[in-house]
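Incident log, support desk, overnight shift.

02:14 A customer reports that sequence design results differ from what the structure should imply. Their input is reproduced verbatim below. On-call engineer (initials T.W.) acknowledged and began investigating.
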């Protein structure tokens, strides 16, 4: 019991002396919970964009529901080209009595809005058809009633054959024709089995690359510093920039291998459909690895133990996944939208989604690639500056 008490007191004493650990331990969870509250409390009602071409007016009117923007399309481009170029969430076309719906299928919430609208449209049209039948039958009954009165009066004075004619008219019913629509669904990306997780897979690739490169780099450099290896290197005339560059090249080699492994495993094992080029995907994730590597080197300078290094993860790594595309940034409050633009994974997630799901080319994602490169260079320069505190000569 005495030994347990001694260990207990030592742990408490060390924790109380480490003010940063106490702040991160008690404040960080509150910050993360507050952030999640704002993220999930934001308006999630997005408007889906549906293009209609050569569709009956009655069908178009029945599709006018909340959160669905219906636009008439006059272009003769294919449905898939309209989705890719004009960013429609779906294209509805009509050929005779057949309707063809082509879904973009990259945003499951918008897909649900469109399919729900189609279902409501079918119900509305069925109700309208039923009302038309009822009205037509009412008119027919009224006409028959009038004819019956007239014929009964004539039958009383003339040939009884008229009575037989009356009976025949009573049996004869006019059935109004009701136009029925057959709907066939097509998909621009994926298929009917594509789920929510499939559309998030591109985001998760970049996040996994970022997380593990950051973690391994930061921990490794921290270990070198604690073992005294870094101190011995700094005691030589070598420049700080050369040290950081050497670390980036060394860790970068393993980061490249790790990135290739993650991307290729996801693409070929999970059978991820790619609309764009896999080489562009690899380039984007190598940039992600470079940013994570530079950030890991920078933050490792502020940690004195592996536990403190881990504390940066819930503050600087985990929040980025929320801004990478899991939750549409456009639905967030204004200050969160501004915050998203200083998150590297915001640009990485957007690039991965556009390449994999929309077939964007390298030139289309080049501006975001340059922004990612700037992030990496800033973190790298910060790591060089912080290296000064460990140089004794």
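02:41 Re-run completed on a clean worker. Output:
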């Amino acid at each position: 019991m005495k030994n347990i008490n001694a260990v207990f007191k030592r742990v408490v004493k060390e924790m109380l002396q480490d003010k940063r650990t106490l702040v991160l331990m008690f404040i960080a969870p509150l910050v993360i919970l507050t952030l999640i509250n704002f993220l999930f409390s934001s308006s999630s009602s997005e408007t889906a964009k549906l293009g209609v071409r050569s569709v009956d007016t009655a069908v178009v009117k029945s599709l006018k529901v909340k959160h669905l923007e219906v636009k008439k399309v006059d272009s003769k481009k294919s449905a898939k080209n309209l989705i890719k170029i004009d960013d429609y969430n779906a294209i509805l076309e009509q050929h005779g009595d057949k309707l063809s719906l082509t879904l973009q299928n990259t945003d499951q919430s918008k897909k649900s809005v469109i399919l729900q609208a189609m279902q409501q449209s079918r119900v509305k049209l069925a109700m309208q058809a039923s009302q038309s039948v009822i009205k037509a039958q009412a008119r027919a009954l009224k006409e028959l009633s009038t004819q019956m009165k007239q014929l009964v009066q004539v039958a009383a004075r003339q040939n009884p054959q008229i009575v037989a004619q009356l009976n025949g008219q009573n049996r004869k019913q006019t059935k109004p024709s009701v136009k029925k629509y057959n709907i066939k669904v097509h998909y621009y990306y994926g298929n009917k089995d594509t789920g929510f997780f499939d559309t998030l897979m591109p985001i998760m690739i970049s996040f996994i690359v970022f997380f593990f490169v950051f973690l391994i780099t930061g921990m490794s450099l921290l270990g070198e510093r604690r073992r005294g290896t870094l101190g011995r290197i700094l005691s030589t005339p070598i420049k700080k920039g050369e040290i950081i560059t050497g670390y980036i090249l060394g860790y970068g080699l393993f980061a490249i291998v790790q990135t290739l492994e993650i991307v290729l495993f996801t693409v070929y094992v999970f059978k991820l459909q790619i609309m764009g080029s896999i080489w562009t995907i690899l380039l984007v994730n190598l940039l992600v690895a470079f940013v994570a590597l530079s950030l890991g080197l920078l933050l490792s300078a502020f940690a004195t133990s592996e536990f403190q290094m881990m504390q940066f993860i819930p503050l600087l790594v985990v929040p980025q996944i929320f801004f990478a595309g899991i939750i549409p940034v456009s639905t967030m409050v204004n200050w969160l939208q501004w915050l998203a633009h200083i998150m590297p994974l915001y640009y990485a997630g957007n690039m991965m989604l556009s390449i994999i799901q929309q077939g964007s080319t390298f030139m289309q994602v080049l501006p975001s690639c340059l922004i990612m490169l700037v992030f990496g260079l800033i973190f790298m320069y910060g790591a060089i500056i912080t290296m000064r505190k460990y140089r004794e000569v």
